[in-house]
Write a structure and sequence with these properties.
Structural class: alpha/beta
Number of strands: 13
Oligomer: single chain
Radius of gyration: 20 Å
Keywords: DNA-binding, Transcription, Transcription regulation
GO molecular function: DNA binding
Pfam families: LacI, Peripla_BP_3
InterPro entries: HTH_LacI, LacI/GalR-like_sensor, Lambda_DNA-bd_dom_sf, Peripla_BP_I
Number of domains: 3
Order of helices and strands: HHHEHHEEHEEHEEHEHEHEEHEE
CATH architecture of the largest domain: 3-Layer(aba) Sandwich
Protein name: LacI family DNA-binding transcriptional regulator
Strand content: 15-25%
């Protein structure tokens, strides 16, 4: 993997600054531009670039539901965006980025809609020129092509591992999300799968369910409040994102508990900073950069054919074990 020195050299800052940025040091005072540069370089160094293949110039539109500040709070969408941009560059595809609130009349051959959208927003996206592909949003029921993560498979990997390690009390820190314009709550699929699986095993305890926005700060606050108001806690927690997991880890450590001796924790996504925090975070790896690449190539394929129905591509995941979980010897 890329070292902190590698990132520092490319970013033009000190290794200490890189380390503090990647660990979300709240006392570090650097500009948002520097933070974004460090995060983007950290993601990019995990990406293997292929040889450039020239093709006829195509213009695609990328519509994101996250702004740049929200990208920095949870690097999941940043990583997918970088994959989109790099694959587009490789294939000589022009990408124009637009916010949902500022859609233009620019003619493009296709649109990648990255994030979560309500039905009114979907209707607006339908009016854009060219093919339409939703990424990280299942729009099949609305008749649209979609590229999504297999959350069920990933969550089951977590549960299977915890049970293998003899954990009988397992908690979850699920994510809270809302669509931007209507404020409609988006149910965390990872929590639904987690609850259903543990209920089948007669192991689910609602008192071990915490929920927070997908940020480090919210994860910290939720776990801090939980540990401050309970005398019993599970020996293992699954968090619906790495950002939530990192925040929860900080709260656990602030309460004098050890990870993984007192509480094991597994996140979801495997963003670049997961391996740099202390202890290094066990997580479900989503190949986010590759998802971005796949979004570009899939949209280009859609432009070349007339499919009778919409398609949904589901991307698998992997369990990556690091120091935040006990590993059976």
């Amino acid at each position: 993997m890329a070292t902190i020195k590698d990132i520092a050299k490319k970013a033009g800052v000190s290794p200490a600054t890189v380390s503090r940025v990647l660990n979300y040091d709240p006392e570090l005072s650097v500009s948002k531009e520097t933070e974004q540069k460090v995060f983007e370089i950290a993601e990019a160094l995990n990406y293997t670039k292929h040889k450039n293949k020239k093709r006829e110039l195509v213009t695609l539109r990328l519509v994101q539901w996250y702004d740049s500040e929200e990208e920095l709070a949870d690097l999941y969408y940043l990583a997918i965006r970088l994959g989109i941009e790099k694959k587009a560059e490789e294939l000589n595809v022009r990408v124009i980025k637009e916010a949902m609130s500022e859609l233009s009349d620019t003619q493009t051959q296709g649109t990648i809609a990255l994030g979560k959208f309500d039905q009114k927003q979907v209707k607006r996206l339908e009016n854009l020129s060219g093919e339409l592909l939703f990424v990280d949003f299942d729009a099949m029921s609305l008749g649209h092509n979609s590229l999504v993560v297999d959350f069920a498979q990933g969550v089951q990997l977590v549960i299977d591992h915890f049970i293998k390690e003899s954990h009988t009390e397992i908690g979850i820190l699920s994510g809270l999300e809302f669509t931007k314009e209507s404020g409609h709550e988006i149910t965390d699929t990872r929590w639904l799968v987690f609850r259903e699986s543990l209920q089948r095993l007669k192991m689910y305890q609602e008192s071990y369910h915490l929920a927070a926005d997908f940020t480090i700060e919210a994860g910290f606050a939720a776990m801090e409040n939980y540990l401050a108001t309970t005398e019993t806690y599970p020996s293992a927690f699954f968090a619906s994102s790495d950002a939530l997991a990192i925040g929860a880890m900080r709260a656990i450590q602030a309460h004098g508990l050890k990870i993984p001796e007192d509480i094991s924790i597994i996140g979801f996504n495997d963003v670049s900073v997961a391996k740099y925090v202390s202890p290094a975070l066990s997580t479900i790896r989503v190949y986010t950069e590759w998802m971005g690449e796949l979004a570009v190539t899939t949209l280009l394929e859609l432009m070349q054919e007339e499919a009778p129905v919409s398609r949904k591509i589901t991307v698998g995941t992997e369990l990556v074990l690091r120091d935040s979980t006990k590993i059976k010897k």
